[in-house]
Amino acid sequence: MSTSPNASAGPFDPVMKFWQDLWAQATSAMPSATPPPAPAPELLAQMRRAFFDAMARFCDDYMRSPQFLDMMKQTMDNALAFRKQLNEFLAGALHASQMPTQDDTGEVLETLHAIESRVLQRVEELSHRIAALERRKSPASNGAGRGRAARRTARTRRSVRAAAKSGRAR
Amino acid sequence: MTQTQTMPFPWFGTHPFTPDVQGFFERLMALPKIMEIARRIPKGCTPSEIVYEEDNLRLLRYTWGPEKKYATPLLIVFALVNRSYILDLMPAKSVVRHFLRAGFDVYLIDWGVPTYGDRHVGLERYIETYQHNVVDYIRERTGQEQINLMGYCMGGTMSAMYAALHPDRIKNLILMTAPIDFSQRESLLSLWSDERYFDVDSFVEVFGNAPPQYLQFNFQLLKPVTNFVEKYFNFYEKMTDERFLEEFIAMEQWVNDNIPVAGETFRQFVRYGFQQNLLIKNQWPIGRKRVNLRNIACPVLNLMATADHLVPCGQSRGFNDLVASKDRTSIEFPAGHIGLAVGSKAQAELWPKACDWLAQRSDPLDDE
Q: Closest Cα to residue B229, out of A42, A45, A12, A56?
C-alpha cells in the first residue's frame, strides 16, 4: 500500500509546515562550530517573547482554518455520540435496579417549578384584585395603591420561593 | 595527572540556558509559601452581607467603605459562566471598592451554581424573575424608584436586556465588555459556535447543562500559548516573589472556579446570540416579549477592552448607536477581557473615571 503525494491536506499539515519552517530558520541561523557569546538575559526574554508571539499567531490562524473547524466538529460529534450511549446505558442500568435517574429527579423539579409558577401567577392576580379594590375604596391614592400592590406581589413571590426553598432543604 | 574532558555540547556550562541549579532549589524552597498563600487567599475580599436569596441566587450588599453619598444604589450583574468575585478579587484589584469609596451603596448578584434540575432554566427566568426580583428588592430596601445597573460580559448583555425590558427602573447603565453584536467574527468563540460547526441542541440534550470543564477548556483554548505554556514559564520565574504569587494564585483560583451554565440559557445564548444575532435586530425573545434596545433611554457608559480576545470591541461598539439614550459614553481601554476589571492600569485610570461618570448622574443622598 502506498500513499499518494497528491493526497488532500490533512488536519495536521499546517502544524507540520510551521515546525518545518521554524526548524529551517533555526538551522540556517545556527553557527557551525564555535559557540556564540552568551546572550544577555533581556535578549533571551525578547527571543522567548518573539517565539511565543509567533506561536500564538500560528495557533490563532490554525484554529480559524477549515481543517481545525472540521476536526473540532468531528470530535464534538463523536464525544456527543459516546456520551449519549453512556447516558442511555447508565439510565437503563439504574432503571433495571429500580433507582431514579437524573432525568427522573429533573422531572420532579420541573413539576415543582410548574406548580410554583401557577401559585405565583394566582398570587399576582389576587394582588392586582386587591390593588383594584383599594383604588375603588380611596380613588385619591391610585398610584400609591398600584405601587403597594407591586411591592406586595414581589414580597409574596419571595416568601413563596423562600418557603419552597426551605421545603426543598428539608 | 589531570585529564581534560571535552563536553559533548560546547555551549553547555557557560551558556545562560544552563540549568540554574541554585534558582531551582530557591523555588523548591518557596513551595510551602505557595501553599500557605493559596490557603489564605479569600474568594472576594470586601466584607458583605447576604440580603436576598432566591433559588441558587444570593444578593450581596457590601458593608465596607466610607459613608454613602448617593441615594441611587448600584447593582452589579456578572456573567453566568464564572464566579462574580473577580470584581472584588483583591483589595488593590477591586472594582467594587472603587464604587464603595466613591460613596455608592453596592450590590452584587452571585448567581450560584445551577444543578442538573436547572437545565431548563432559560434567560427569561434569569432576567424576568431573578434579576427583576432583585431590582424590586433593592428598590424596596432603598426606597428608590430607579437603580444604577452595571453588567460585565454576559452579565452586560443581560443587563442591557433588562434595561430594555424595564427602562423605568434603570437610572444609569454601565456595560463592561458586553457582547451585543454577534455578527463580528474577530473572536474565535464566534467562529466555533457557528451552526455549521456546533450543534447546540444536541449538546444541551446530551449534557443537560454546559459543563464547566468544557467552557473553561474553550476559554483557555482561545489563547493556548498564553494559557498552557507562557503562564507557567512566568510562574516559574517569579515564584519567589510573594506579591506576584498572591496575584497569580488569586487569579488562578478564580479562573479554575468555573460553574456550569443552565442548558436552556446556554442554548438561547448560542442560538439567539452567536448564531442568529437577534439582539441588534431587536428580536431577541424573552418569554413573550422581544428585547428592543431602542427602549433604553437612560445614560449609558459602554466600557470595552481593546485587547479583549473573548468579546472584541467590535461586538460592543455598536451598542451606543442602538439605544435611544442621548447621554452615551464609550471608553475603549487598552486591556484584556479580565484586565479591564483587575489590571493595574484599569484600576488606576479607568475605574476612577467610571465612578465619576456614575456620580455625576446619580441622586445625592439627602442629609436629614
A: A56
Report the residue of B128, B146, B188 to disrupt the A interface, i.e. the one with the largest count of A CBs within 10 Å. Answer: B188
List phi, psi (to 5°) of B260.
Answer: -70, 160
Q: Is B153 a catalytic residue?
A: yes
Minimum mean pLDDT range among A54-58, B15-19, B46-50, B295-299: B15-19
Catalytic-labelled residue, pool B45, B153, B298, B355 = B153
Question: Dihedrals φ, ψ of B263, to 5°?
Answer: -50, -50
Name the residue ranges covered by the structural domains of chain B: 38-359
pLDDT tens string B188-217: 999 999 999 999 999 999 999 999 999 999
How many Å lie between the alpha carbon of B83 and the closest alpha carbon of chain A? Answer: 22
Q: A72 vs B188: CB contact, 8 Å cut-off?
A: no
A-B interface: how many C-beta pairs under 8 angstroms? Answer: 89
Cα(B181)–Cα(B20) distance, integer angstroms = 50
Chosen CATH of B38-359 out of 3.90.600.10, 3.30.530.20, 3.40.50.2300, 3.40.50.1820: 3.40.50.1820
* Residue among B105, B110, B308, B313 flagged as catalytic: B308
CA distance A1 to chain B (A): 33
**Res. A1: pLDDT tops 60:** no
Q: How far is CA B285 from CA B122, B159, B277, in A?
A: 11, 15, 12
* Residue B284 reports pLDDT greater than 90: yes
A92-124 per-position pLDDT tens digit: 999 899 998 888 888 888 888 889 889 988 998
> In the predicted model, is pLDDT for residue A167 greater than 50?
no
Q: How far is B132 from chain A (nearest CA, A)?
A: 9
Are B203 and B330 in contact, with CB atoms under 8 Å apart? no
Distance in angstroms (rounded) separating the CA atoms of residues B122 and B286 = 9
> In this complex, do B133 and A154 lie within 8 Å of one another by their Cβ atoms?
yes
With CB atoms and an 8 Å threshold, state whether A72 touches B229.
no
B255's grid cell: 479562573
Question: Which of B196, B198, B225 is closest, CB to CB, to A59?
Answer: B225
User: Burial level of B163, CB count in 10 A (0-12/13-18/19+)?
Assistant: buried
- Report ipTM for this prediction: 0.78
Question: According to DSSP H, which parts of chain B are helical?
Answer: 21-40, 95-101, 123-124, 132-142, 154-165, 188-192, 200-207, 212-221, 224, 231-238, 242-255, 263-268, 313-316, 319-322, 339-342, 344-345, 351-360
CB contact under 8 A, B136 and A151: yes
